[in-house]
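REQUEST ID: PR-0412
SUBMITTED BY: lab tech R.K.
PRIORITY: routine
TASK: structure prediction, single protein chain
INPUT:
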Amino acid sequence: MKIRYISAKVRIMAVSTIDPLASVVALLKPEPSIAKLVNGGGRWRVERTNMASPFYCAMVEGTCLLTLRDRAPLVLGAGDFVLVPESFDFTMSSIDPPPPGAPHLPLETGPGVFHLGEQDAPNEMRCLVGHCSFASPDRELLVSLLPAVIHVRAHGRLIALVQMIQEETQSDRAARDMVLVRLLELLLVEALRSVESTMAEPGLLRGLADPKLALALRQIHADPGASLSVQGLAAAAGVSRSTFFDRFHSEVGSAPMEYVAAWRMAVAKDMLVKGNIAMAELARRVGYGSVSAFSMAFSRHVGTPPGAFAARCQAA
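STATUS: complete
OUTPUT:
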């Protein structure tokens, strides 16, 4: 009895220390791409299309307009930070942009430094702009858990992190790539936890802002191989089964067991890409009693058997 009690206590402590937000960011595997300092003067506009990559911008001074596809323009001022986890089309411009059709090619004035607008116009805006990529094989699922746009005003820590990324990108110091990856992870975590839960769309942040749902989400992320059920998760949250189901669906945006299955598959994909694990052990770690049961679930969810998926990823 004493051994079981200690074991249960250790399990509870392990569950309580798992951070779903950190596990999602880690599984996204952010990788550095572009970081640059952009100055603007006079009337200017820059457009990007079909990028399908994460984009962030930290305003150092001045103001500008950021227009994302199908969204109202955002006015960005000094100290503002904006992150778009998956950006396809966007336009940045001066508050009074030039007419359509006017030339708007940026002028590179130094390594990683660009000027927008009239060449002789004094700088009125300065921002740090960056792009990165997510190397996760399940990036679509993980991105869907995050807000479509994160806009934080007057946040010195985020500005400082972007400045560090900019400096590190332009340097050629030892372990630069490792440092950039860690800085990107910190940037994502800091940006996500700075979002007010009332402003976030249904997703992980809204779920974690609900103390009851947060308990269940921690349990899911702590051990995807555990025997998880709506009834058990509701008990962990301390609410009835029906209340838990409705609240989870409303705040997180999916049914509880759909979320569990998706998270298990995301973890499984990550393990398959890393390799060096027996299929039976992998199946056990993501909650399946046999290789055949896991293979059927994976094929149904992903559209290809786990062995074929692993081979394809390792050949890429």
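NOTES: Residues 256-274 form the longest helix (19 residues).
REVIEWED BY: pending
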